[in-house]
Amino acid sequence: MLSNFxxxxxxxxxxxxxxxxxxxxxxxxxxxxxxxxxxxxxxSAREAVKGCRPKANEIDNEVIKTLALFGPEAxxxxxxxxxxxxxxxxxxxxxxxxxxxxxxxxLIASGFDMSGLEAxxxxxxxxxxxxxxxxxxxxxxxxxxxxxxxxxxxxxxxxSKGDDLYAIVQKDISEMLCRIDVDxxxxxxxxxxxxxxxxxxxxxxxxxKLLLYIKTGGExxxx
Length: 223
Known about the structure:
Elements lengths: L3 H33 L2 H10 L3 H19 L3 H37 L7 H21 L6 H35 L4 H33 L7
Helix pairs in contact: 1-2, 1-3, 1-4, 1-5, 2-4, 3-4, 4-7, 5-6, 5-7, 6-7
């Protein structure tokens, strides 16, 4: 039979997975909306992350109450501290998704042709999505240390890909500016769109580092 404290830890872990799942759903809808140029799908992505901040506040409050009631030590304390930091990263990811939706809808409304950039944007989308999928899997701390480390390595690879793909988008935009007569403001919006995807991968690796710290200890590392 689980102790009251372990039950509370499992409850908070489940809430954290639910919050991360909202981010994942939002990203999946962003990717679909980008490919289909469907504003309703993009708006659904925004709605998917609408409740992220209240959910994060609920988790933070549960963590604080658990700290006050049980006075955890060592591993359990690491988990509590890690969760307080992770909720902030997830809220920032939700903010990136909302901003992404705003910029993408603006480009669709302006009639901007994204076809010349799809070769770099689709892999960038996929990399951010894969990083988040691995991050959601990693939140389940019932996994073994080996599984946690493997997922961390996968996220690290996707985050590195995201950096490289963002650089490619910048290069593609620079080349298009020289040969296509389009409002430069649209290209700035495209660059902001790519930046939000790259930042989502950054948040995923930050969360992965926190989860690795929770599981294995050592020094707390930030991106």
